[in-house]
């Protein structure tokens, strides 16, 4: 499976990613239905960390389930092309049209615990999301649209503001701060590789 190889080749950013990467590979090896939410122990999902071209802002939604400002994302539902899933969910949840990958490869890995909740009138037991994150770029000029089935609001945040806006402490400390740091590193690399003006 291509996804298995992509995760296997991914270089972890920190200890959290190193541990979660190993668990993800073992989960894929053990469960043929790892890409389907019918696996009630856990399943694969894809998320997007959406930034503007200047890498100074991120686009977030106020999530109905978590009652917090959060990234976009959703279930794989059998699709092993998680970049496609991340792009689809970004468009569906925010209304943006002009969105593209900054990188084609995986940007981040994390295993997320989902508490039991009601969805579409049915109880969903607590389970794990084996989540693959991609870095996407979108135009701030695109009209933003709320997807009422998923969120209550959509807006751009400055990177530091986005971290403070979230009311999920674990996500802030273990995911959003990491993504913010990685985004800034990419911005620094890009600046270093821009050719001089010859003056």
Would you mind describing this structure in some detail?
The chain is of the alpha+beta class. It has one domain (2-193): Nucleoside Triphosphate Pyrophosphohydrolase, CATH 3.90.79. The protein is 35% helix and 30% strand. It is built from five helices and ten strands; from the N terminus they run H-H-E-E-E-E-H-E-E-E-E-E-E-H-H. The strands form two sheets. Strands 1, 2, 3, 4, 5, 6, 9 and 10 form an eight-stranded mixed sheet that branches. It has a two-stranded antiparallel sheet with strand order 7-8. Helix 4 (159-165) packs antiparallel against helix 5 (169-193). The longest helix is centred in the last third of the chain and has 25 residues, at 169-193. The radius of gyration is 17 Å and the shape is globular. The N and C termini lie far apart (50 Å).
């Amino acid at each position: 499976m291509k996804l298995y190889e992509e995760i296997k080749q991914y270089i972890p950013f920190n200890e959290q990613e190193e541990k979660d990467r190993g668990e993800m590979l073992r989960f894929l090896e053990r469960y043929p239905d790892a890409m389907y939410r019918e696996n009630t122990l856990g399943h694969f999902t894809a998320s997007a960390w959406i930034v503007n071209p200047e890498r100074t802002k991120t686009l977030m939604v106020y999530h109905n389930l978590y009652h917090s400002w959060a990234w976009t994302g959703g279930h794989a539902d059998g699709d092993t092309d998680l970049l496609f899933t991340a792009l689809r969910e970004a468009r569906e949840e925010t209304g943006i049209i002009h969105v593209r990958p900054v990188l084609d490869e995986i940007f981040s890995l994390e295993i997320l615990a989902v508490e039991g909740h009601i969805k579409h009138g049915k109880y969903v037991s607590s389970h794990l999301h084996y989540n693959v994150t991609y870095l996407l770029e979108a135009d701030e000029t695109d009209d933003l649209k709320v997807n009422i089935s998923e969120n209550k609001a959509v807006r751009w945040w400055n990177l530091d503001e986005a971290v403070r806006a979230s009311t999920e402490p674990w996500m802030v400390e273990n995911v959003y701060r990491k993504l913010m740091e990685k985004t800034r590193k990419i911005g620094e690399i890009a600046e270093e590789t821009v050719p001089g003006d010859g003056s």
